Amino acid sequence: MTFQTLFAASANHIYIGNTLWYLIVFVILLLLVKHYAWGPVSDMMEKRRQKVINDLDAAADNRKKAEVLANEREAALKNSRQEATQIISEAKVSAQKTSSQIVADANKNATSIHEKAKADAAQAKADALDEARSQVADLSVAIAEKVIAKNLSATDQKDLVDQFIKGLNK
């Protein structure tokens, strides 16, 4: 066997020397890629991984904050509903008190007016009776004067009564 046949491949005539050369060039290229490309690519991938992790953490934090805000908003809404219900209840109670006070004042005024009307009617009646008594007294005095001034006969009495009736119509 010759040296040449030892280093030659059987079918394609590839020599081991070429294979070693290709292998050495491949290793050198691999080292160059690792040194110049793999490091920056790895750094870029690590930065990307960290950015994704940070974004996921920020999203989780934002979600928690949103949940807290939603809970606070819900609590505030419930509180506002309770306050509104309380305000409405207080307004109803106040309206009922005011209504009761207005009705009581109206009843008091109506009673006062009724009592005053009664008093006025009683006073008017008393005044009318006093006036009637005064007139009756005046008429009695007038009749007595006429009776004393004359001795009355039957015709005189009739004339006196007629004059009295005419005096009443005036």
List the SSEs and their pairings:
Blueprint: H1 3-7, H2 16-149, H3 154-169
Pfam family, one: ATP-synt_B
InterPro entries: ATP_synth_B-like_membr_sf, ATP_synth_b/b'su_bac/chlpt, ATP_synth_F0_bsu_bac, ATP_synthase_B_chain
Protein name: ATP synthase subunit b
How much of the residues is beta strand, in percent?
Answer: under 5%
Task: Please identify the structural class as seen in this structure.
Answer: mainly alpha
Low-confidence stretches: 3-11
- Major β-sheet profile: none
**Helix percent band:** over 70%
GO molecular function: hydrolase activity; proton-transporting ATP synthase activity, rotational mechanism; proton-transporting ATPase activity, rotational mechanism
Organism: Lactobacillus bombicola
Family: Belongs to the ATPase B chain family.
Protein name: ATP synthase subunit b
